Amino acid sequence: MSRKLLLEHINVPGINTLEVYRQKGGYRAVEKALKTLTPEEIVEEVKKSGLRGRGGAGFPTGMKWSFLAKPEGVARYLVCNADESEPGTFKDRYLMTYIPHALIEGMIVSSFALGAKVSYIYVRGEMMPQIRILEKAIAEAKAAGWLGKNILGTGYDLELYVQPGGGAYICGEETALLESLEGKRGNPRIKPPFPAIAGLYGCPTVVNNVESIAAVVPIINDGGDEYAKIGIGRSTGTKLISASGNLVKPGVYEIELGLPVEEFIYSDEYCGGIANGKRLKATVAGGSSVPVLPANLTLKLANGEPRLMSYESLSEGGFATGTMMGSGGFIAFDEDQCIVRNTWNFSRFYHHESCGQCSPCREGTGWMEKVLHKIEHGHGSMDDVDLLWDIQRKIEGNTICPLGDAAAWPVASAIRHFRDEFEWHIKEPVKSQSQNYGIANYATPIEKAPVTEEK
Amino acid sequence: MLKVEEQTPVQFSSELLAKFDDVKSRYPEGKEKSALLPLLHLVQAEYLWVSTPAMDKVAEYLNIQPIEVYEVATFYTMYFLKPQGKYALEVCRTGPCCLVGAEKILDHLEAKLGVKEGEVTADGLFSFRGVECLAACGFGPVLQISPEYTFYENLTTESVDQLIEDLKNK
Q: What is the interface pTM, i.e. ipTM, of the complex?
């Protein structure tokens, strides 16, 4: 069994309450931080831990904290990004539902480290049940003196509020989130200035993902050095992986970074293999935005070595043969799934969610959706594949925020690895409506399988 | 689509205004516009949709221009700009849920309720629509029902039928 830092007590009845959470050692990190550490020492521990942002970008959290400007007499803010919307990712919902106090404890310690007196948890609006859970937990914590004025008699004051979003994927981008929190449309801001200099209300602000903030708790309890001992290389600690798609046991798993992908998919401790005895065709390893990989490249690197669940190993080989850790949204496709249909689905998602600010993204995502719809529904021509490639290239890198890249990568990778499936859809417009292409040669060492009849 | 005509004026209750005041107190002085999204949720929970007169009232309450409310209400997908069924069913239609049968659930709802996506049943009880990822991919297919946003996971056509019966008898 691997070590669990965040989900250790997930199955303890009543762990969502302050009482049980306390019995299991909860809020020790607040006591330790507020009574024995200075804010600078906390930042130092987080730096030592090597913790990298768990929302998707993987930027070192301690470094992000150290960039925070501290002008005299200006408020500073910590905003928790709980706008979890990346298709394939549902770990934050899970954490907030079952152990809300882990996030609140992390928020108190982190706010203290950053010198924030008011902090917000921006939760996507659809998660009203989680908002209610968090508000109840905050009220419990406040009644017990963990929030409010003069916490633990240390003179530190903190108010913590939950802010609902309105239903927009783009608000997971930190500057769009801040716009939304200011009561505006979620249009990302041009950087610089970065939020560390001018964020919420123009004040220095740190925006961190739910899981990153929750991870601060074990880092403070055990020390940054201890945390850094877990994992592999620059991928330290544990990571929550949201596993979905055609798996025997989809769900949220806490893994030690460095776990072989093959073990994660097939071992009974984790996903338990592909559902219904089918074979693995492809995976999206880090949420819908990251490149899709065929089974063979999922399990092994191009040089034949096992691929590991770590930031470095997942991205080994660049986009030619690798992918990204992203937010840890691991989606598995069995042999009966259609890559064209899924790529169309993802493109529709990005078209729907583009904020419309930058032309390449606003127009390009719509074009990609339309062209993919055409191919998927049997009206494609060979030129369309090249057209898709051309569009995605013109979006990538040409937008204010990474949504453009996120829309381009799934299309690019699908064509890169599954071009024959696109071409089959075009050459067989009738057959492709009632059959699927099957696993073909994506999953070496398995031999080329025939096109399967739909059941 | 915003339509100004044919919408009855609204008067917010004192209970609702008390909730408004509570939300507004969370932000620094001069930054009360931050309350806009939560306020629109409160309005929608009360009226099941957000009408133009209601948005105008919210603007008045926050001391901002009506356009500042309209541009927000039309940007975010959760705000209904026309009346919905008493139970607005929202089914996730994004990739991972489709791998495990979300499209079948949407087709089934259309057949079962006898209305197209976005329309309201004759008895006013139901409307449905497909929405993008609800962050519950491991438990798909999923749907949520506003205004409470109660959540239903691992849907089958049978469990959807049962859910609709339960709601009818509520």
A: 0.95
